[in-house]
Amino acid sequence: MTGFVGGGRRDGATSRGIVVTGAGNGIGRAIATKLAAEGERVVVNDLDADAVATVAAEIGGFAVPGDAAGEAGARALVEAARDHLGDIDIWFGNAGIDHGRGLDATEADWELSWSVNVMAHVRAARLLVPAWAERGSGRYVATASAAGLLTMLGTPTYSTTKHAVIGFAEWLSATYRHRGVVVQAICPQGVRTRMFDDAGPLQGLLAHDSALTPEQLADTVWEALGDERFLILPHPQVAGYYATRAAHTDKWLAGMNKIQRGLEQQGAL
Prior knowledge:
Elements: E1 17-20, H1 26-37, E2 41-44, H2 49-59, E3 62-63, H3 71-85, E4 90-93, H4 107-135, E5 138-143, H5 156-176, E6 181-186, H6 194-197, H7 203-206, H8 214-224, E7 231-232, H9 237-247, H10 249-265
Parallel strand pairs: 1-2, 1-4, 2-3, 4-5, 5-6, 6-7
Helix pairs in contact: 1-2, 1-8, 3-4, 4-5, 9-10
């Protein structure tokens, strides 16, 4: 075993072994940086080998580049992380993509979105959760987006797969929480990442309640690791939207359709 067990956090507690996927930039990078700054032992993963190596060097982490979505890649990442850390205490399933627009989204767009945005979580959980349940502790944190609680106009692939992430995370929590497994879902609206920059005319919708920096989101995530709340909401307003959607579904859908019509009139969609 090349890693170590133990160590100390800034608050005096024993440091934890943590994996962050999609950590080469954006939200994943900010979360990994925050965790390391607080004294945690962090393994970072990304398809972009150069980016994730840079992050690891900056934060004193350990880089495992590769595809964490596929079965082989997920297994390789878990094995490398366990070898380095001694054990995995927290898994941040953060990697995600936004491919395909409207009904023109191709079969390839749907297949890739499903693999990266949903099956990556399923494959990681298969490898992690049984051991956590046996020992009585472990934490799985999925980056789901407010799109998983509400929807995202223009992109059915992203909206549908992020809803599925929430569904799978809910199932994990309902099934394993009595065995010490904590499951959490991060559901922000607009965050100033590469995906936000590429959103074009949808930026205004994403930034409706302000667009956060990745560092601001990471601070909220760190705070949420201190408890067992299921939903991590960097934009607190999302809780109200979610409640309205559940209580007044038709009214909520009519409101979303009004926004859709407005975007169409602007030529944005």
